[in-house]
Each structure stands twice: as C-alpha cells, then as structure tokens.
Amino acid sequence: MLKIYLLCLTCFLLPVCFLITLEIYKTLKNHIVVYYSNNSNSLNSTQAYIRQKKWLTCIKILEKNIALQKKSTTKYYNILGFCYYYINEYQLSEYYYEQVLKQKPNNISILYKLAKVYLLNKKDKDAKNIYQKILKLDKNNNIAKKK
Question: Sorted alphabetically, which PROSITE patterns does this protein's record hold (predicted)?
C-alpha cells in the first residue's frame, strides 16, 4: 500500500517539479539578459528583440538602462514608445513619444507617431494640432494633408 502511495505521489510531483523548473529557468533567463545588457550593446539587442517581437524583454532592457544611466536618450524613448505601441499600451507610448519631442520638437517622424497615438487615445484635437505642426514643418507632407 505504501509503495502504491509513493508511486502515485511521484507520478504527480514529477511533472509539477518539471513545470516549476521550466518557469524558474525562463524567469532567470530574462533576468540574465537584462542584467548583462549594458549600454554599448543594448540598442543592438533591443533591435534583435524587436525583430523577434519580444516587446516586454526589449522594454525591460531599455528601462533598466535608463534607470542606470540616470539620463534620458531620445533613442531609448523612441524605441520604448514603439514597443508600448505594439503591445497596445497607448498611454505609455504617448508618454515616451512626448519625451522625445521635448528634446527634438521638430522631428516629423516622432510627430507623426505621436499623432497616431493621440488618435488611438481619442485625443482628436491634439492629433489635429500635431498634423498642423507637421504641415508647418513640411508643407508637402501628404500624410498630414489627408488628416
């Protein structure tokens, strides 16, 4: 009777232990990736994660680098806005695109991205103002003319 009990217990616990080990491995792998990514290769690694559509890993790497450097870089903010856009976190995407615009107020590409996010956040007036600003900077911009 004891042998049957131990056999049943082992058959139940073995898969549970395996699943727990897999989850621990995945978690540690993500933490190691974030820990070892430093500023010199972080942009390259984030580009690789973007191609693989691993948005959250990319976000973790960039936010950690921003926290460690204690300075803002427009490249990081631009990529963060892009990543948050693709995971449908439009409020955060808007925030990061606005951070880029504080440093580069006449960047048409960022203005266009911010206008798209404003439209998704139901801020039509703000989007219209952005499109008007784009037209002031580039009178031949067909995308802004259509909006």
Answer: TPR
- Nearest-CA neighbor of 96 among 72, 120, 119? 72
User: Which pTM was predicted?
Assistant: 0.69
Sorted by where each begins, the domain ranges of the chain are 13-71, 93-147
Query: CA-to-CA distance for 92 and 120, rounded, in angstroms?
Result: 12
pLDDT (tens digit, 9 = 90+) per residue, 107-130? 888 988 998 999 898 888 988 888
User: Both tokens of residue 103?
Assistant: 């440093």
Distance (Å, whole) CA 62 – CA 80 = 7
Triad 130, 136, 141: Cα angle to 5°: 80
Reading the block at residue 73, the tokens are 């870089």
CATH topology of domain 93-147: 1.25.40
